[in-house]
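look at this:
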Amino acid sequence: MLRDPESSAVHLSIPVEGMTCASCVRRVEKAIAAEPGVLTASVNLATEKATVEVLAGTVDTAEIEAAIRKS
């Protein structure tokens, strides 16, 4: 977790397994982005990681992981 010193944003890197195509990536990105407090979400199929920018103190990582599992 990295904190941007010029804002109240926190950058998270979350492992995402089981994706097989670009449609999976988009579905996971949409699920993450729908969580309150999420500013940006980017998922990489090759590295199986989601890079997420959230407002500090507004999102619990467990909530994002639950959204990923549901997608």
